[in-house]
């Protein structure tokens, strides 16, 4: 299994990473250099005001996302993505030449044409870079790959913005801008030639150039899966949220912190590196799988630290302070900490969402769903910019704008998690398990990725189901005692995961029959069912005899049975060692190590209770 550093050495990922990094870098070098030149030198080129030119430039750059994203998605689904990447990089070389001509002639029209083409370059490459990841990476590598892409993108934005400003302000700047841009574009093309072949999922697709009908069709593809569509909405909200903060940094630095132009870089670098750090830590926090529990964690952090940024903003700053002088102000450190943590939690939020869209999208429509995502991203950023401008024009201060954004972020989170409780469910399970235990999972690939199956496991504690849910990629519908099912807090987890409450025949025969009926329907639907065949939690650490309920299940639905064993939970706070459970806190300390060991699936005809008990005991070994 590749780690992130391993992916950077792998041919199936490294050339793509370098290509996308250099593309994002060049976009920002050229775009920021043009904006700086238009701001400070346009008076000799045109009679239009610099403020109008800067806003026109931003609008022209984003326009291709609306016009051509649908077509870009179709192209990436129909043709080999590696070949498309090479063609886009050749286009980038041509764009730099056009930009160089515009700079040399001082032609606003030619510069704006090159900005439009830069936007087209990004529009065409977006579906390629995201839709190719599921083709070249394993499922457990998607989070790490997306984390590297996101971290690289934001670092490229930072470096490109700084480099573009430096080149624009240097002597002979127009020649330097063209030369550096051309060098980056050529390097990007060379890197793209090493991207491995990516077989197109829809080679017979008929390309339609109507942007309106194709945009709506792409959105329909995305809406086929509600979780995918709401993940796209979450991604788009993140770009609105992040772009809103980035756009305010110059004015915030000058008018609120009292900093000079050099201090803007300090804020930009802090926020950007925060996103990079958060993105790169997603793989470790999620155990190399798409962990939706990180998304609510990210949204909570984004809300809290955006609010604190508003509160930490000084009311009466000094003026004209450089970066070093600004650091000498005590209030600055709290602002920088808020920005760093805002970026870190933003990374936790965005990376799993991108990986989820790639993992759960129909492969035949993958690039077109990414195109729909890009369209929504652009739309949200435009709406966010207009709303921010309107609120500032109405008299809100920038710290007040940050507070409004934080509250809106909380509202968006509540809306999304209300429609798709799976996000909140994974967050609760992730927090419960990772705040108490360190879980090691062995042979997770034995659990089938799709299709009906039953998992059986020894029953050591009251949190066994949560541990297994946290470890497995697929949702599991556990059959559990109705008393545990009704526990406060955990009841939300069990209801949301569609657990099936059961009672004994002596206690409530009607409930027992309903439970077996529900298990049958779930297996008919292709679900994964989890049971604890002992029927009760062990009181002495030993495995109790497996009861015949599994036989009745398999008689109706002869599906594979996957044996599992929990190790290390006996003696924990939630076990019954030395008396009732949950009466002796910290009995095993904090973050104690536990293990979930998974065995090979057993055919239904061989899955007798005695055989399964023997398999689970063998997996358990000497541990309880």
Label this structure with key terms.
about 625 residues, mainly alpha, Growth Hormone, Chain: A
What does the model show?
- The protein has 3 domains: 1-222, Growth Hormone, Chain: A (Up-down Bundle), CATH 1.20.1250; 226-360 and 394-420, Growth Hormone, Chain: A, CATH 1.20.1250; 436-620, Glycerol-3-phosphate (1)-acyltransferase (3-Layer(aba) Sandwich).
- It has 624 residues and is mostly helical.
- It has helices at 4-7, 14-40, 50-78, 81-105, 108-131, 133-136, 142-169, 173-192, 211-223, 226-257, 261-285, 294-312, 323-327, 330-360, 366-393, 398-419, 421-434, 464-471, 482-485, 490-496, 509-524, 549-556, 609-620; strands spanning 437-442, 453-457, 477-481, 500-502, 528-531, 561-567, 592-598.
């Amino acid at each position: 299994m590749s780690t992130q550093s391993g992916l950077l050495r792998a041919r199936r990922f490294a050339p793509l990473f370098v290509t996308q990094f250099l593309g994002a870098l060049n976009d920002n070098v050229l775009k920021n250099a043009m904006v700086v030149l238009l701001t400070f030198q346009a008076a000799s080129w045109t009679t239009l005001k610099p403020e109008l030119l800067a806003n026109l430039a931003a609008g022209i750059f984003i326009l291709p996302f609306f016009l051509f994203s649908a077509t870009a998605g179709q192209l990436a689904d129909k043709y080999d993505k590696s070949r498309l990447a090479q063609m886009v990089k050749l286009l980038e070389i041509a764009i730099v030449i056009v930009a160089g001509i515009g700079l040399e002639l001082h032609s606003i029209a030619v510069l704006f044409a090159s900005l439009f083409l830069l936007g087209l370059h990004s529009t065409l490459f977006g579906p390629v870079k995201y839709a190719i990841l599921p083709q070249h990476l394993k499922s457990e590598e998607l989070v790490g790959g997306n984390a590297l892409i996101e971290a690289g993108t934001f670092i490229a934005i930072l470096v490109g913005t700084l480099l573009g400003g430096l080149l624009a302000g240097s002597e002979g700047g127009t020649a330097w801008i063209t030369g550096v841009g051309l060098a980056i574009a050529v390097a990007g093309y060379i890197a793209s030639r090493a991207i491995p072949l990516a077989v197109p999922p829809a080679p017979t697709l008929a390309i339609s150039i109507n942007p309106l009908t194709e945009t709506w069709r792409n959105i329909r593809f995305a809406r086929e899966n509600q979780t995918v569509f709401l993940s796209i909405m979450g991604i788009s909200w993140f770009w609105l949220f992040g772009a809103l903060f980035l756009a305010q940094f110059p004015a915030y630095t000058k008018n609120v912190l009292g900093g000079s132009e050099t201090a803007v870089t300090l804020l930009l670098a802090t926020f950007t590196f925060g996103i990079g750090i958060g993105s790169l830590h997603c793989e470790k926090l999620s155990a190399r799988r798409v962990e939706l529990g990180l998304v609510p964690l990210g949204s909570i952090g984004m809300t809290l630290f955006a609010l604190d940024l508003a509160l930490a903003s000084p009311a009466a700053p000094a003026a004209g302070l450089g970066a070093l002088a600004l650091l000498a102000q005590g209030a600055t450190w709290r602002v920088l900490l808020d920005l760093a943590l805002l970026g870190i939690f933003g990374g936790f939020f965005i990376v799993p969402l991108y990986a989820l869209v790639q993992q759960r999208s129909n492969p035949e429509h993958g690039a077109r769903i990414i195109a729909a995502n890009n369209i929504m991203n652009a739309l949200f950023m435009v709406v966010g910019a207009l709303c921010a401008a309107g609120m500032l024009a109405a008299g809100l201060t920038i710290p007040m704008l940050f507070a409004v954004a934080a509250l809106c972020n909380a509202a968006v989170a509540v809306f999304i998690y209300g429609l798709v409780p799976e996000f909140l469910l994974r967050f609760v399970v992730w927090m419960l398990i990772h705040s108490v235990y360190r879980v090691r999972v062995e042979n997770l690939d034995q659990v089938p990725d799709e299709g009906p199956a039953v998992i059986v496991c020894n029953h050591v504690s009251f949190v066994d189901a949560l541990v297994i849910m946290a470890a497995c990629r697929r949702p599991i519908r556990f059959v559990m005692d109705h008393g545990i099912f009704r526990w406060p807090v955990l009841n939300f987890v069990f209801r949301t995961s569609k657990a099936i409450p059961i009672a004994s025949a002596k206690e409530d025969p009607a409930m027992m029959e309903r439970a077996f009926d529900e298990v049958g329907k779930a297996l008919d639907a292709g679900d994964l069912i989890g049971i604890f065949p002992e029927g009760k939690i062990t009181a002495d650490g030993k495995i109790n005899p497996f009861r015949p309920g599994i036989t009745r299940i398999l008689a109706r639905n002869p599906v594979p049975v996957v044996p599992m064993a929990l190790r290390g939970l006996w003696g924990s706070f939630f076990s019954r060692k030395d008396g009732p459970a949950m009466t002796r806190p910290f009995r095993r300390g904090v973050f104690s190590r536990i293990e979930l060991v998974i065995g090979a699936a057993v055919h239904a005809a061989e899955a007798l209770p005695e055989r399964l008990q023997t398999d689970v005991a063998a997996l358990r070994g000497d541990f309880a």
